[in-house]
Specification:
The complex is a heterodimer. In chain A, the strands form 2 sheets. In chain A, strands 2, 3, 4, 5, 6 and 7 form a 6-stranded antiparallel β-sheet that branches. Chain A has a 4-stranded antiparallel β-sheet with strand order 1-10-9-8, with helices on one face. Chain A is built from 21 helices and 10 strands. Helix content of chain A is 58%, strand content 9%. Chain A has helices spanning 2-30, 33-36, 39-62, 69-74, 81-86, 92-113, 121-142, 174-184, 186-198, 204-234, 245-270, 274-296, 312-332, 349-381, 389-409, 420-443, 449-476, 484-507, 616-634, 667-673, 682-688, and strands at 510-517, 527-530, 533-542, 549-557, 560-562, 565-568, 575-578, 580-583, 587-593, 605-614. In chain A, helix 17 (449-476) packs antiparallel against helix 18 (484-507). The longest helix of chain A is centred in the middle third of the chain and has 33 residues, at 349-381. In chain A, a hairpin with a 6-residue loop joins strand 3 (533-542) and strand 4. Chain A folds into 3 domains: 1-161, no CATH class; 176-406, no CATH class; 510-615, no CATH class. Chain A is of the alpha+beta class. The model of chain B is unreliable at 1-11 (pLDDT under 50). Among the domains of chain B are: 45-101, Cytochrome C biogenesis protein (Helicase, Ruva Protein, domain 3); 117-165. Helices cover 56% and strands 0% of the residues of chain B. Chain B has helices spanning 20-37, 45-54, 72-86, 91-101, 119-144, 151-165. Chain B is mostly helical. Chain B is built from 6 helices and no strands. In chain B, helix 2 crosses helix 3 and helix 3 (72-86) crosses helix 4 (91-101). Classes of the chains: A alpha+beta, B mainly alpha.
Chain lengths: 690, 170
């Protein structure tokens, strides 16, 4: 029943995608608006098919229908409800199903948002592109990643999901967030392809998809931070980012997406960097597919390799198709992508954005190279090379410092050209903020060149961001926080918090392994003090449920009770540690059990690892601040919509409104700001003409 | 340095006086960095062991460092590191020694700087240099040629103007 329902949903999605491609293509070819408008119906069918499959799988998991191979391999009768729900994305087939489900949702969102312009060729081509992507994912589900394969002899119970995936509730939220991000980049990609095909390469398509990109980027950010949080709480090594291929695969589209969100402003404002922006959009989408290939095909070794399959060739082929299509289209449209404007001075907002893009490109290059280098070395040279954390840390540290510096300087730069006078006056207070942070860091005992430089630059950048926010709120009140420029500054503050936490927790971590006894005896104390935090062993507790065995050690950390434990799930002999973390604004105390507690009652003893790291909480707060900032950035600021026509009568000219970006104290910026170029309203006019 | 003629807010000051605040800031920064970096104790043996363990891969895992793995092989490597530290070896000697104890396994997490694996270090540097050079050349190119509308550009504008006067779409 579940299998039939699910397979039906997948087939509905597949057929609807195919039908949509044919219909929309015919509509575009024959210039028939009624056919192009049918993409609305098809989008609902695709989403409906994916939803039916999703519900069927959830139903199978909830009713423990072990006749489905997926449930038999990943489900179990004892998995608690939340983790049972999350089992849908705990292995390959289910992840593809989640992907298709979210993609269906995005399709419906796009046809709803553009409901009045579905017969506009730009939108029609974008829908066509999206349906090609849905076709691919539904084809995966009918072929190598079929979630609804049926077993002839169903077992009575299954092993349940990987133990690491069912001992922390974050696992229910991290993957969907990440996928909302990954999949969301399909929309800007589809519009980029549509712009290339139709040749309507003005700024219209960019502006229409800007918020979609921001939306996807925000979810990806939140997904990545939740993943880091999960590893910190679950893995018990004090780490939150291991430069593991799976993590790198999620970071790569984030890097190119971040680069795009910055350089898109140069194109909107000055009409420049058109090829570059198109490439970034397409690269971001292509990297989500490449990342899926790298992590799901098993070509790379990884601690995250929860699944292997023969899905590799299809993903690699799809990746190649995306890259070749993009490169071919850009080459074909090269003449129309020629930019009319140019950069007057490197010391300008657009100059800073260019530098930002070089640094982000280098960042992406390092992460990609480090991830695939073992593969390259092995296939080209037969050499076994491991590229691990030390490589990534050494290479990305300077990149991070340069980015902090740019975050400090770029926000105060005017467009076109900055004088040294502008820089001198505008950067003075941010500079003092940075200096104050540096002095305070030294006074509280922070040592070492790299972390101190990081703290100084972080303070400098925070000063710059705060300066912008203060100016904006002074002018417009709290309303000034809305809009991209100032929402972006709040995102910067979040990034700065994370950078500081990164530098501090890496540089000043204290780690101690020791044995504790309930009653202190010779050579075994009952408590230990690490970096001023007292840890006292009180006793052994048994917290087993019928889903798992769990033996915990009751500890008092600074007088507060915590119970790190070791879990054993019925499906494996593997023992899984369940560490505890005591967080405070200053530092975090993480305690993991090294092995099962010995003895009972007053004679019990346990070996523990205590890790004290400063400012860990700032990572998670920084993530929340970033999400909040992007939310503010999604609201329209006071700037006119750039796609609105500007050649109206002077009396109603929106250009006469003050530009929120120009600053009252500097009259000479105002003139510079008016020199912007793009007047492209091709989307509006073409839409209205149909 | 544009001199005294600029400045809408602080325009009364002139010449080097404008930069006094910045010079003061620089002095504070240099002093703070000096205090924060000079005279640090050299790392303890435990810190050295931890740092080394973070650059060596656990022999029986895929990409985890021995510092963060509890497998018997990792414990053995950590013991080995301790032995060599107590024997007075330098960090580099210890890494070479550990690598030689597990031939053909490539236990070092940061690839060597020489040979084929040196590429992984060199390529990003080449990438950045090429990108910056390309950007500099673009800027130089902008400076060299003044921006004037070509005949082709003008005819395009004329066509577009005519079209919009006639109420057509572009």
């Amino acid at each position: 029943m579940n299998a039939a329902l699910g397979t039906g949903g997948v087939i509905l999605g597949l057929v609807a995608s195919l039908g949509a491609i044919v219909t929309v293509a015919m509509g575009i070819r024959g210039d028939r608006p009624e056919l192009m408008r049918m993409s609305r119906t098809y989008a609902w069918m695709v989403a409906g098919g994916a939803a039916i499959a999703f519900v069927a799988m959830q139903r199978a998991l909830i009713t423990r229908d072990f006749s489905l191979e997926y449930v038999a391999r990943n489900g179990s009768t004892t998995t608690p409800a939340l983790y049972n729900f999350a089992t849908l994305w705990s292995a390959l087939e289910g992840s593809i199903l989640l992907w298709a489900f979210i993609l269906g949702g995005y399709c419906v969102a796009v046809v709803w948002k553009f409901r009045d312009r579905l017969s506009d060729k730009l939108v029609a081509w974008a829908m066509l592109t999206m349906f090609v992507v849905t076709l691919f994912f539904f084809a995966l589900m009918t072929g190598p990643a079929n979630p609804f394969r049926v077993l002839a002899n169903p077992p009575i119970d299954g092993p349940g999901p990987n133990p690491l995936l069912q001992n922390h509730p974050l696992m229910a939220f991290h993957p969907p967030m990440l996928y909302l991000g990954y999949v969301g980049f399909t929309v800007p990609f589809a519009f980029a392809i549509a712009a290339l095909v139709t040749g309507r390469l003005g700024e219209g398509w960019l502006i229409e998809t800007r918020r979609w990109t921001l939306f996807a980027w925000t979810f990806l950010t939140v997904g990545i931070i939740l993943g880091a949080w999960w590893s910190h709480e679950v893995l018990g090594w004090g780490g939150y980012w291991a430069w593991d291929p799976v993590e790198n695969a999620s970071l790569l589209p984030w890097i190119t997406g971040t680069a795009f969100l910055h350089s898109v402003m140069v194109q909107e404002r000055r009409g420049m960097l058109r090829v570059w922006n198109l490439s970034l959009v397409c690269a971001t989408f292509a990297l989500t597919i490449l990342g899926t290939f790298l992590t799901r095909s098993g070509v790379l070794d990884s601690v995250h390799a929860f699944s292997d399959s023969n899905i590799g060739p299809m993903l690699l082929g799809f990746f190649a198709l995306i890259v070749l299509t993009t490169v071919g289209l850009v080459a074909w449209r090269g003449d129309r992508l020629r930019s009319p404007a140019r950069i007057d001075s490197p010391a300008s907002r657009e100059g800073a954005f260019l530098l930002n893009n070089i640094v982000f490109a280098a960042f992406a290059f390092v992460v990609l190279l480090g991830t695939v280098f073992p593969l390259i070395a092995e296939s080209l040279n037969g050499e076994k090379v491991t590229v691990g954390v030390p490589y990534f840390e050494r290479m990305t540290m300077p990149i991070g410092l340069v980015l902090l510096f740019l975050m400090a300087v770029a926000p105060v730069l005017p467009w076109r050209k900055a004088s040294s006078e502008t820089l001198r006056t505008r950067l003075l207070w941010p500079g003092w903020v940075g200096t104050a942070v540096l002095v305070i860091s030294v006074l509280v005992g922070a040592r070492g060149l790299a972390p101190l430089i990081a703290f100084f630059l972080a303070g400098f950048a925070a000063g710059s961001a705060l300066r912008q926010l203060v100016l904006a709120t002074r002018r417009q009140g709290l309303r000034g926080l809305l809009g991209r420029t100032n929402g972006g500054m709040i995102v910067h503050l979040g990034v700065i918090l994370i950078a500081v936490a990164f530098a501090a927790s890496n540089a000043y971590q204290t780690e101690r392994e020791t044995k504790l006894c309930v009653t202190a005896v010779e050579g075994c104390a009952s408590s230990v003090t690490v970096s001023g935090h007292k840890v006292e062993f009180v006793g052994v507790v048994d917290n087993s449920t019928n889903a798992r065995k769990e033996t915990g050690a009751k500890l008092l950390i600074d007088g507060k009770e915590f119970t790190p434990a070791i879990q054993q799930f019925p499906n494996g002999s593997q023992q899984i540690g369940k560490p505890t973390v005591r967080n405070s604004a200053r530092n975090s105390v993480l305690i993991a059990l090294l092995d099962l507690p010995q003895g009972e009652g007053k004679d019990a003893s346990v070996r523990i690892r205590v890790i004290v790291q400063p400012l860990i909480v700032w990572l998670w707060i920084g993530g929340a601040v970033m999400a909040f900032g992007s939310l503010l950035a999604a609201f329209p600021g006071k700037r006119r919509r750039p796609t609105d026509p500007t050649s109206a009568l002077p009396s109603e000219s929106p250009q006469l409104q003050p530009d929120p970006d120009s600053e009252p104290e500097s009259g000479k910026d105002a003139g510079q700001d008016s020199g912007q170029g793009p007047q492209s309203n091709d989307l509006e006019t073409a839409g209205a003409s149909t | 340095m544009t001199g005294a003629k600029t400045g809408t807010k602080t325009g009364t000051k002139s010449g080097p006086a404008k930069w006094i605040a910045w010079v003061a800031m620089l002095v504070v920064i240099v002093v703070a960095l000096f205090v924060g970096t000079v005279g640090q104790p050299s790392p303890t043996e435990a810190e050295r062991a931890q740092n080394l363990a973070e650059t060596i891969r656990c022999p029986s895992c895929k990409s985890q460092a021995v510092a963060s793995s509890e497998t018997p092989a990792s414990k053995a490597v950590r013991e080995l590191i301790w032995e060599r530290i107590e024997a007075g070896d330098t960090d580099e000697e210890i890494r070479d020694y550990v690598a030689s104890r597990f031939p053909g396994q490539d236990l070092l997490l940061d690839p060597e700087g020489s040979g084929f694996s040196g590429l992984v270090w060199a390529l990003p540097v080449v990438f950045v240099i090429a990108a910056v050079a390309g950007l500099v050349m673009r800027f130089a190119g902008y400076r060299a040629q003044p921006l004037t509308a070509s005949q082709e550009d003008k005819s395009l504008v004329d066509a577009a103007l005519r079209a919009s006067e006639n109420g057509e779409k572009p």
